[in-house]
Specification:
Four Helix Bundle (Hemerythrin (Met), subunit A); 3 domains; four-stranded antiparallel β-sheet; seven-stranded mixed β-sheet; alpha+beta
């Protein structure tokens, strides 16, 4: 199965309790006990008698936390006594999983089914799958599944069409039933207008939202179809729900939006179309506001979009892309926008984990010069690769911005984007090389008191060593591929930066040669491993060819400087 250690999913369970904070806390405590998840929000509603909880983390950890939360809710919430304004069918009414990064929707569906099976089989709570996880089209919509609510499920569950996907087709009188599934991320987003008119804000909302507005005739009367139902004129944007309102706190009208699929309608598209329709109605968008949190990808794409509109290179760092997005969307108009608190991936970062790449150059050098073997040559070689890719990226960005070369900005932007991708993976490998060494040391520390333990220890050492070969080999591959960037920039980039392209090639050569030494060193004693021998064969080729490639870039750079 795929390694999901770097994947992030969000879970937003809705529990049928909105007043008793002791019960709510007992449920959220179960979530916070699980390592690898972070509780982001707890939103109780007394009128609805319902609490919406939001947490994120690695998929397996999220499933574990969700299961224990559902279990605790099933123990503490008696649906026989429950009343509230919001439709509901169980103690845990609905539990959606949402892919955030490093995982596809299809893969998220697999986790939703894992959770559903565990709840249905282990807790005796009937489970229905919905949205992308649905087992039939008529079960995709949550409202259709929940129709009849808790009170109606005693009879509904007996019908073959409404047998649960997991668990027995028997009414659970105490806990009811629950719906588990996978859906797209919902972005709650407000667009600020330079008006106090709710009516004008609504007009723009009706322009942009998918549902649109009711069609009217010349006299202003609603047009109806043959069945007597209103005819609707669709709006401009898919997966957008919107309405206008006036916010007394800020003294302005807003367009309040729920964006239910940012892949179909990206955040920046929503903003720009809203700007266009607002201007067409004689108003102006002054900024916007994100309610809750947002996936990093939404802001990175927005940053690139606005840079492209300016005909500027998109191959800049992640922090700069986020900054451009914040400024362009006006996200700081009503208050500070802290990326560490508003971007999901950043909120999950553990600031207590020390990374080599986060150290200052002085501290990195001191750490390397210490009395421990790691960080060592592998991490240093990887960082040489980072510097080589960074120099090529710099030349590309300067070339995209060069006076008189305005018609070539996109050409160099593509090169800069490629360089940023190389840098990102190589930066990861700086720390991963040291981690791989530590894994080997841990394997050597395993017990060897009997034949079984000795065999297990040897297997662990061999597996760790193979991984410690793959890491520098991956660095070799990336550094080797960066010669293409260095050569392109030496040949076609800003001639004033020819020396920078040459130094970039020298760094790439150091990275290839350095990691080649690591591959060969770690491969000792693994002559019988076919995978390792294939890696060595490829490494030999790159080690030989990198001298030629570096010399080519050197010669081109030198010729440009004479």
């Amino acid at each position: 199965m795929k390694d999901f250690s770097n994947a992030i999913i969000e879970c937003v369970p809705n529990f049928s309790e909105g007043s008793n904070m002791q019960i709510i806390k007992a449920i959220t405590d179960e979530i916070e006990k699980v390592e690898g998840v972070r509780l982001l929000d707890v939103d109780p509603g007394k009128a609805t008698n319902r609490t919406v909880v939001t947490f994120v983390g690695h998929p397996h950890a999220v499933i574990e936390a969700a299961f224990h939360a559902i279990k605790k809710a099933g123990e503490l919430i008696d649906m026989r006594q429950h009343t509230g304004e919001h439709p509901r069918m169980g103690a845990t009414d609905v539990c959606p999983l949402i892919p955030i990064s490093g995982i596809t929707m299809e893969e998220t569906v697999v986790f939703a089914k894992m959770l559903g099976k565990r709840v249905g089989d282990g807790l005796g709570i009937p489970v229905y799958l919905y949205e992308y996880a649905a087992t039939a089209d008529y079960r995709r919509n949550l409202a259709d599944i929940r129709s009849g609510e808790y009170e109606g499920f005693r009879d509904k569950i007996k019908h073959a069409d409404w047998a649960p996907d997991f668990g027995k087709a028997e009414f659970n009188e105490f806990s009811g039933a629950t719906v588990i599934g996978a859906r797209d991320f919902l972005i709650a987003y407000n667009i600020n207008l330079n008006t106090t008119s709710t009516r004008r804000a609504n007009a723009v909302a009706f322009d942009i939202r998918e549902k649109g507005r009711q069609k009217k005739d010349e006299k202003g009367k609603v047009v109806k179809d043959a069945n007597g139902d209103p005819v609707w004129v669709p709006g401009l944007l898919k997966n957008v729900k919107a309405i206008g309102w006036f916010i007394e706190e800020y003294g302005v009208a807003q367009i309040s939006v729920n964006l239910t699929n940012m892949n179909t309608t990206p955040l920046h598209t929503l903003f720009d179309v809203a700007c266009e329709r607002t201007a067409a109605r004689g108003m102006r968008v002054t900024g916007s506001e994100l309610v809750g949190m947002v996936p990093l990808q939404a802001l990175l794409e927005a940053g690139k979009y606005f840079l492209r509109k300016q005909q500027r290179s998109t191959g800049v760092g992640e922090a700069e892309l986020v900054r451009i997005a914040i400024k362009s969307l006006g996200l700081e108009e009503l208050g500070p926008f802290d990326p560490k608190k508003k971007i999901i991936e950043y909120s999950l970062q553990d600031n207590n984990v020390k990374k080599l790449v986060d150290l200052s150059l002085t501290k990195f050098a001191s750490e390397t010069a210490g009395e421990t073997p790691a960080p060592g040559g592998g991490s240093i070689a990887a960082y040489c690769g980072v510097l080589g890719a960074a120099l090529g990226t710099m030349v590309a960005n300067l070339s995209a911005h060069k006076k008189g070369w305005d018609d070539r900005w996109e050409e160099f932007s593509h090169h800069a984007d490629a360089g940023q991708k190389l840098m990102k993976e190589l930066l990861f490998l700086v720390d991963e090389d040291t981690r791989a060494y530590n894994v080997i040391m841990n394997a050597y520390g395993l017990p060897k008191n009997n034949d079984e333990e000795k065999a297990a220890r040897k297997a662990a050492i061999d597996a760790a060593t193979v991984y410690a070969i793959k890491i520098p080999f991956r660095t070799m591959e990336l550094a080797f591929s960066s010669f293409a960037l260095a050569k392109a920039m030496a040949e076609t980039g800003n001639p004033n930066c020819a020396s920078d392209a040459g130094v970039g090639a020298l760094c790439a050569r150091a990275a290839v040669k350095g990691t080649y030494l690591n591959v060969i060193t770690n491969a000792k004693g693994l002559d019988g491993n076919a995978e390792v021998q294939e890696i060595i064969a490829k490494a030999e080729v790159m080690n030989a060819e990198c001298d030629v490639l570096e010399q080519q870039v050197w010669n081109i750079s030198l010729s440009k400087m004479k």
